[in-house]
Amino acid sequence: MGHHHHDHDGHEHPEFSELSEMDARVRALETLLTERGLVDRQALDRVVERYEREVGPHNGAQVVAKAWAEPEYRDWLLRDADAAIASLGHIGRQGEHMVAVENTPERHNMVVCTLCSCYPWPVLGLPPVWYKSPAYRSKAVIDPRGVLADFGVSLPEETEIKVWDSTAEVRYLVIPMRPEGSAGMGQEELAGLVTRDSMIGTGLALTPGGAP
Asked: Which domains does the chain have, with CATH numbers?
């Protein structure tokens, strides 16, 4: 399991869906503050909607598509993800100290945060509920191939699965393998093949014609 420093789309995964204690406390606090008029519910909704619809995972898909299309950018992204991602304007809190890892036929990368729910918001938006669940955080370490099976992903036995532990200091972006049949597609089209789960490593990129 890779510790750098430390410390599907459209699919439901009940085994990873329970609220953590922290999630429950946050929701209770939000409800209390809203009821007392200290927080504007509509303002909160706008922030959430921005991260869900504008910030990510569309930003990450743009990064991956550019890496697929431009070898020089791909090399830069793997060498200095912070600078490469910032060059596209995707910067912000929770996105500092990024590391990009590339999937290949020999190695499949998957990201987890074993301590809490560290997640690169500027490129992937809000973390899915299952990412924050104790079930995912523990099973990803113990049985990563089983986790992939839960998400409907089956890899050849010879493919190594490397799990990266995201921390407050380092967050990861998985560059999924470019799907067959995507040659000649423009970057905007390519971005449509990149899913949130594929950038976490719990899914694969869509094949052309499979994008929603």
From this structure: 14-200 (3.90.330.10)
